[in-house]
Amino acid sequence: MPLVVELGDDVANGKPVNWYPGEEMNRFIAVFGASGSGKTELLKRVASEVIRHGIPVLIFDFHGDVEVSHVNHVMMSSGFGSSVGINPLSIEGLNPQTHGLSDHRAEIVAMLRRAAPSLSQNQAHLLAEAMRTAYVMVGIEDRDPRTWNLPPPTFAHVQMVLASWSSDPDMKGRRDSINGCAAVLGAIFGHSLFHCPRNLSVSEILGGNWRLNLEHLPESIQVIVVDTVLRLVFRRLRAMGSLPVKFGCDADMYRIFVVIDEAKVIAGGQGYPNKSTRILNVIASEGRKFGMGMLLASQGRGDAFLKTGRSEYPVRIQIRLVE
Ligand SMILES: Nc1ncnc2c1ncn2[C@@H]1O[C@H](COP(=O)(O)OP(=O)(O)O)[C@@H](O)[C@H]1O
Ligand SMILES: [Mg+2]
Fold first, then answer.
1. What percent of the chain has pLDDT over 90?
2. Cα distance between residue 235 and residue 212, in whole Å
3. Is the predicted pLDDT of residue 81 greater than 80, yes or no?
4. Which of 48, 321, 322, 323 is the best mutation target for the ligand 1 pocket, counting ligand atoms within 8 Å of the beta carbon and taking the most?
5. Does residue 273 line the site of ligand 1, with CB under 6 A?
6. In the beta sheet, which residues pair with residue 210?
7. Which CATH number describes the domain made up of 23-78+208-318?
């Protein structure tokens, strides 16, 4: 059964416009339009059709309005209704053959610098060191992948390391940096989302349809949630290996289809949108190979993620509502 979604009509000639991912070179679609132009409505239609083909869908919902049937709704907030959290320090799906823990820590530091631009170079360096110590604290050693199945540390462990350094007379000269780093971390990881008794696992995500409702989170935390979840999912897919080149049907092209409404939250922000290690760029260049499709919606045309000029970037559709 070919995957096809009716998107609307071409304003120039009135002809219907359909999306046939099986005929595209890439698995991406980006939808642009002003507020009220129908982006969310279109997203919901694409998601429903993808679900109908039995492909797991993962929706990042920043406004709480991407309601689609047959999707598990997870409210992520500091409130009582939030029962599932995430741990950015998780190393689930990391393949020791190809990726070391130091890469993983560098990715986290880069993500934190985007979420908290006030973190200086010095503090970022300290943070990387403190994280390394936190993994050792829970028994996870860089050079011994057998220990990588142990429960990962949390940011509470990192804070503990920083607190002990702060009171260490030998580190007196670096105390200001240490305390500054701890303050930045505290402001972000004090959020209850990072202290939930249960964290969302990649196996769960790949086994169903999910809508992560992030509407009640501050933007810095939204950045961390999206970045972390995408990174964990992508890693797992990469560890599963490449898809075959030929497909039985269109649904076989995908192991998961990710939908991001208002994509500027992850595309913009601090740092370098062009950097090849940014998760959006990683997925743009390698997602297809590992079965990851993506639909991004955004206002306007000139969002940061299109400034990258990367050839892998998506099929672009500009929409507007016709009276
Ligand atoms: N194809 C469509 N036909 C009729 N109404 C639509 C269509 N797409 C969107 N709408 C309506 O237009 C309004 C704005 O749509 P929405 O998808 O929320 O826009 P956006 O996400 O771009 O701000 C909503 O009330 C929605 O129901
Ligand atoms: Mg919308």
1. 59
2. 19
3. no
4. 321
5. no
6. 58, 72
7. 3.40.50.300
